[in-house]
Amino acid sequence: MAWTDAGSRPGGEVTVEGLIDDIGRGAAELSPGEPAALYAGVARLAASVDRLRRVARTARDAAADDNHGYGEPGVGPPELALPESAFAALTETHRRAVLVHCYRMTGSYDDAEDLVRETFLRAWRARDTFRAGASVRTWLYRIATNACLDLLRRTARRPHDYEPLPGTSGHAGEPPARVAWLQPYPDDELPEADEDPGVPYGTLELPLLVALQHLPPRQRAALILRDVLGLSPGETAETLDLTPVSVDGALRRARPALRDLLSDGRTRESPETEAAVLARYTAAVAALDLASLGGLLADDVLFTAPPNPSWCRGREAVLAFLRPGMDAASPAFPGHWRHLPARANGQPAAGGYLRRPGTNVHRAQALDVLRVEGGRIVEITSFEPHLLPAFGLPLRL
What is the pLDDT of residues 171-220, one digit of tens each? Predict the structure, then answer.
């Protein structure tokens, strides 16, 4: 039986031959003419090479794994008699859907990438468990969910509230939840809407990711499988090795808990408004214009910087926190900023690059993710910069 998935987009399947052909065509079409066109062509070629590299890595890992004793390519259960390269191409077709599922479960992009590799290796080992006529994606979701649960059991992560930092102000009101492992997710890595029913607005926003981390792992998994991915009660119960009654009980606890954590009446801004606010934000920081920056902040704006313990709430507190870094006369002045726009978790974002005094290079310092309501910034989450390449951004300018 050929590997097929009725839920796949027509023509969306990945093949090794197709990737190699794409790379060959892309290389042949490169021309040292107009610089912008050359850059765009090289970027497309690099994306195809990266995809082929992932397929090759998965095939290599499968070939190196002998847990089931299938010593020759194509030897194994008759329903799934595939060589490693064809198996790797199949899993690449579903990579983004599995990646975003693992990210929802863990809140960490780094962990999600590791879990995708673990999922595909487990799938290779367990390919005799795939039933003819079943959905490949649902089968992979089942394997990925259990890989995530195994990780969560090992790490035993629990969110807790931020605490006031000695010698600092701006800690008025209820402290926010601190999820030290929280990382951003690049919008460009989202699956197509028909690949993942959880893509529509809201399912990857940072407040939801934080709220999900408060749920016990099996409750979290049950809610994601049923309410986000739309799996049936039976499929969810089978995935979690629970009875349907137990799944129903987990959902009855998880749904109200999630509603309570998200009961802040958030509204969605248009992409145009978000882009305009982001442009004004980056322009104000580049110009060291604290007054213009203050005009963009909501009265109760919240600033956090996971995994660091720094946080503050309120316009004046946030401006006081940022002021030394935007005052060229301050002994604490770090240098001048440039920003490149991005999108993370369905929200406007910007990669921040700092040129320190006496240097000529802007080096990556942060990825700021903004939440905008009513034309004002209500939340700034400033992440460490190592994930910028996942957003298509360099580490230096």
Answer: 666 788 899 999 999 999 887 765 555 544 347 889 889 999 999 999 99
Q: Please, what is the average pLDDT of the chain?
A: 85
- Looking at residue 229, the DSSP 8-state letter turns out to be S
Measured distance CA(324)–CA(333) in Å, rounded: 6
How far apart are the C-alpha atoms of 145 and 304, rounded to whole Å? 29
DSSP reduced 3-state for 349: strand
Looking at residue 368, its amino acid is D
3-state secondary structure string across 282-335: HHHHHCCCHHHHHHHEEEEEEEECCCCCCEEECHHHHHHHHHHHHCCCCCCCCC
* Dihedral over Cα of 340, 345, 348, 353: its sign: negative
Structure tokens at 238: 């089978």
Q: In three state form, how does the secondary structure of 114-154 look? A: HHHHHHHHHHHHCHHHCCCCCCHHHHHHHHHHHHHHHHHHH
How far is 372 from 267, CA to CA, in rounded Å? 9
Helix, strand, coil shares, percent, the chain, to 5: 50, 15, 35
Q: Which of 201, 208, 250 is nearest to 107 (CA)?
A: 208
Task: Give the C-alpha separation, 80 to 361, whole Å.
Answer: 52
Spatial contact of 116 and 144, defined as CB atoms under 8 Å apart: yes
Q: Which residues contact 122 (CB under 8 A, 6 or more apart)?
A: 143, 147
Report residue 333 as tokens.
């002045």
| Predicted local distance difference test score (pLDDT) of residue 120 | 92
CA 223 from centroid of its chain's CA atoms: 19
pLDDT band at 71 (very low <50, low <70, confident <90, very high): very low
Phi, psi values for residue 300, rounded to 5°: -110, 30
Task: Specify the pTM.
Answer: 0.85
The DSSP letter of residue 396 is B
User: Which among 181, 243, 246 has a CA at the least distance from the CA of 212?
Assistant: 181
94-140 per-position pLDDT tens digit: 999 999 999 999 999 999 999 999 999 999 888 877 877 778 888 99
CB atoms within 10 A of CB 68: 13
Alpha-carbon span 81 to 312, nearest angstrom = 57
